[in-house]
Amino acid sequence: MDTQEFWTLIDDARAQVAHAADAEAVAARAADLLSARPVDEIVAFQQVFWDLMTASYRQPLWAAAYTINGGCSDDGFDYFRGWLIAQGREVFDRAVADPDALAGLTAVRDAAVEGWEMECEEALGIAWDAHLAATGKELPGDSFTIRYPELDPGWDFDFDDTGEIARRLPRLAALYGE
Predict the structure, then answer these.
(1) CA torsion 123→125→131→132, rounded to 10°?
(2) Measured between alpha carbons, how far is 173 from 165 in angstroms, rounded to an integer?
(3) Among 9, 39, 74, 152, which residue is least crowded by beta carbons within 10 Å?
(4) Any idea where the DUF4240 domain is (predicted)?
(5) Model-level pTM?
(6) How large is the C-alpha radius of gyration of the chain?
């Protein structure tokens, strides 16, 4: 499985759920679709997933997640990026390139009003769930690698600094401002 096949599976899952913005439903459907594929594709999916998680491991995106969710731990950032992947390639690519663009998403705007968090821990388990369903066994632990890049020191500031967030992520700051 390559990146294009990965995104096609996510798009197919999004198209088959009642609400494409429902990241948990997308993750569950993606696991179902993936479980029907050959085992080597299930394993390969996991590596592509973590390659995307690595590509999105950027402090500007972390600052956006922190702003949207009212805080964001290490695990919370993983769950936020799981949510982001469940939104599809276009949203993912746009957010990685310009995290402030998330302010234009209906789901993010609704979350600002309702106080919802944008997280999907279930997305991290798509390949695990698919492998278990297909084989009755857990995904081999050595089937993928994760190599996070160093974080950008230019973004090493307290994300509670509303002035700095407003300067760097003005649309999100306006949406989530007090």
Answers:
(1) -130
(2) 6
(3) 74
(4) 1-130
(5) 0.95
(6) 16
Q: Is 153 helix (H, G, I), strand (E, B) or coil?
A: helix
* SS3 category, 19: coil
Selection from 49, 35, 54 nearest residue 133 by Cα = 35
| Separation in Å, CA 73 to CA 12, 166, 171 | 30, 20, 22
Q: For the chain, what's the residue count?
A: 178
**What does the alpha-carbon distance between residue 146 and residue 125 come to, in Å, rounded to a whole number?**
15
Using CB atoms within 10 A of its CB, is residue 93 exposed (0-12), middle (13-18) or buried (19+)? middle
Chain mean position to CA 7: 13
Which amino acid would we find at residue 31? A
Measured between alpha carbons, how far is 88 from 102 in angstroms, rounded to an integer?
Answer: 13
Read off φ and ψ for residue 143, nearest 5 degrees: -85, -5
